Amino acid sequence: MEVQALLIMFREVLEALLIVGIITTYLKRMDNKQYTKYVWLGAGLAVLASAGVAMLFQVVFTGFTSMGSEMYLKIGIMLVSALLLTQMVFWMASHSKDLKGDMEGKMNRFISTGNIVGMVIHSFLVVLREGVETVFFFAAITGGNIGAGIQGWGAITGVIIAFIVSYFFFKGTMKVTLKTFFKITSAFIILIAAGLLVQAISMMQDLSIIGSVIPHLYDLTWFLPEHSIDYDHYLRDHGVAPILSGDIGIFLKALFGYSSMPSIEEVIAYIGYFVGIYLLTSNKGIEKKEISNQISDIKSQA
């Protein structure tokens, strides 16, 4: 869970810092430094609002727990989080090149019209989006205990790394481009999203919400059990210990959705998710190439 928390918090905080940093840097460069306080005001209010969303979410989850329906809420959170994580990766990939120009254009409109309220609201919404997404993701990876997840070493480390990376980025001393950096972290985010999807399917099968054609496609408990309890039970029943510890299985299950005895539906969903991601990225690459070719043709005709 802590590694998941680190990656998610790092990505969300870094995106928010980059957007706010781009805006404030631009305002300073255009001799409009007096407006930066309004940008930070909006960002600060968004952080407080995100904390409020987290507390509200915790209250709602507690209510579901008291009614004995927390498992259904967990499944819903996992599915929504998997979708949001996937969307986050695609959004950053498609907007990373135009992000700077888009932010600067909006600031120009706010300054030219004297719309200070709009400036505050814009920075507020930008940061709030990252905050709300973080609440959802932490609810998914912690099983609803958002407070414990945010207070863990993974979340704290993620925030620290995000601040360090953004600092070096705006100082111009960062050697690795953000595009490369986001590609690497996006790969891990996609793995986390796939794991959440598979875990949601497994929970739905446990609750008999959906059935299974083959409940256990294979059994790798002898090699790597997915929990320390499975490790102990295998040792008790077979007289020999599994090759790898169940603690490793817990880590891989939390990070990538590993299962030592998956159903055929889990395996299909896991593989299908990556196939879908590949096809979507391939189509985007083809579209970009076609647009580039069309632009070249127009230029040659002119």
- Principal-axis shape equals elongated
Q: What is the tally of helical segments?
A: 11
User: How many strand segments?
Assistant: 0
- Average of per-residue pLDDT values: 79
The termini sit apart by: 57 Å
Provide the succession of SSEs: HHHHHHHHHHH
Strand content: under 5%
Name the structural class: mainly alpha
User: Share of helix among residues?
Assistant: over 70%
How would you characterize the largest beta sheet?
Answer: none
Radius of gyration over all CA atoms, rounded: 23 Å
Residue windows where pLDDT falls under 50 for at least 5 positions: 286-296, 298-302
Walkthrough of the structure:
- GO terms for molecular function: ferrous iron transmembrane transporter activity.
- This protein has 302 residues and is an all-alpha fold.
- It has eleven helices and no strands.
- It has helices at residues 2-29, 36-66, 70-95, 99-113, 116-142, 146-151, 153-171, 178-206, 228-238, 246-256, 264-301.
- Residues 286-296 and 298-302 have low confidence and may be disordered.
